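Session log. Operator J.P. requested a structure for one protein chain; no other inputs attached. Running the standard single-chain path with token output.
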Amino acid sequence: MKKFTFIASIFILASCSQKTTSTVSKVETTLATAEEIAQGKILYAESCIKCHESFEPSEFTEKKWRHEVPKMSKKAKIDATKQRLILAYVLAGAKK
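Structure written below.
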């Protein structure tokens, strides 16, 4: 019985932490100000066009942008602050 209680506790804790992570991701999207989105647009235009064509934010889903921006930021050596601003811009116009 003790084993069952211990294992059940682990599953409950694990499920709670996963829900918290996805909620934080959603909150980050909604907290972007108009100024941050505008700064992200400028950074996107200046940084991303150096290596490839520019894509409209509406060309990809939020999920795709959340995957691509960190990956491309690493390649382009874009710091976390600029990455967050670029992500705010593309997520504001991402395909639903």
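Operator note: The mean pLDDT is 80.
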